[in-house]
Amino acid sequence: MHYQSILESVAADVAPMVGGGRVANYIPALACIPIQQFGIALHTVDGQQAWAGDARTPFSIQSVSKVLGLTLALQALGNTLWERIGREPSGNAFNSLLQLENEQGKPRNPFINAGALCVADRLVSAHIQPAQAFADLGLRLHGKPFVFDDEVARSERETGFRNAALINFIKSFKQIDNDVETVLDLYCRQCAIVSDCVQLARSFSYLANAGVQPGTGETILSSEQARRVNSVMLTCGTYDAAGEFAFKVGLPCKSGVGGAIVAVVPGQMVLCAWSPGLDETGNSMAARRALELFVTRTGLSVF
Ligand code: GLN
């Protein structure tokens, strides 16, 4: 298949949608991102790359970092991670407090904010320098450390009252071991990692390749762990739009309010589409449509 021309046609077809939706202005440092941008890239397990549009423009990966956090936590803790975090879709907004009280502070899954905060807490316990562990993971996934946008991290740290509420509430159930401020610092830093479509498609290739990073042959996760991360991405990676994504895209996906969506075609490739305009569920409108068009044109889907 000629992926380059497929991505170019997808980019051309979504162009009229680019600029629709709203940027994530609840994080002040993201409120001024120009909305008229769109990029898409793919990286196959045998090393082919293709990209179109603004695929080399850096953006804030936000919740896409929850896949990196989950990967680091599975490396450090294995299955004991699941003692404190579930793997059921929440059917609620990514930053919802609703289910936590009924469920005694055990978040539904690692991709809602409550779950990602618990993962961050485990990483604070497991690593002397947990932010450095995220940076170093970049070295193993694409040959360079991940970099953080300190301004975005600070901006979210100063205004993230809901995340502060979530973690304090979870701690009241004794499900957070560390100081909440330390965990919030890490969470905001990981969300503020800067990347682009080309780099992210390459970085997440291990998820399409049974846990082994194709370029280097390094085992990042066991094949069972990689399969499970993909499962949780499919059912929970796009929050309360996960059913609609499974219906229309049919791939494990993880979105972030920076406008990126990473999608895995197991055994074949990873895609990353990005455009800052979000719908009401916090998923990029143009990136979502682009993935749908790609799947329709190529027939690549897990279903
Ligand atoms: N940093 C963002 C937050 O906590 C991440 C949310 C997202 O990308 N969905 O609100």
Short summary:
This protein is of the alpha+beta class and 303 residues long. Helices cover 44% and strands 11% of the residues. It has helices at 3-14, 65-77, 98-102, 113-126, 130-142, 150-159, 161-172, 180-191, 197-203, 223-236, 242-248, 285-298; strands at 39-44, 49-53, 59-60, 147-148, 193-195, 253-255, 260-265, 269-274.
Outline the structure in words.
The structure is a single chain. The chain has 303 residues and is of the alpha+beta class. The protein has two domains: 3-62 and 194-298, 3-Layer(aba) Sandwich (Beta-lactamase); 65-191, Beta-lactamase (3-Layer(aba) Sandwich), CATH 3.40.710. It contains twelve helices and eight strands. It has helices spanning 3-14, 65-77, 98-102, 113-126, 130-142, 150-159, 161-172, 180-191, 197-203, 223-236, 242-248, 285-298; strands at 39-44, 49-53, 59-60, 147-148, 193-195, 253-255, 260-265, 269-274. The strands form two sheets. Strands 2-1-8-7-6 form a five-stranded antiparallel sheet. Helix 4 (113-126) packs across helix 7. The longest helix has 14 residues, at 113-126. The relative contact order is 0.19. Residues 62-63, 94-95, 113, 156, 163, 191, 256-257, 282 line the site of glutamine. Glutamine is lined by residues 62-63, 94-95, 113, 156, 163, 191, 256-257, 282.
Helical content band: 40-55%
Largest beta sheet, briefly? 5 strands, antiparallel
Provide a count of the helices: 12
The level 1 CATH classification of the largest domain is Alpha Beta
User: Please, what is the average pLDDT?
Assistant: 97
Number of domains: 2
- Looking at the structure, the CATH topology of the largest domain is Beta-lactamase
Which of globular, elongated, flat, extended, rod-shaped describes the shape? globular
Low-confidence stretches: none
What spatial order of strands do you see in the largest sheet?
Answer: 2-1-8-7-6
Task: Summarize the helix and strand pattern as letters.
Answer: HEEEHHHHEHHHEHHHEEEH
In quaternary terms, these chains amount to single chain
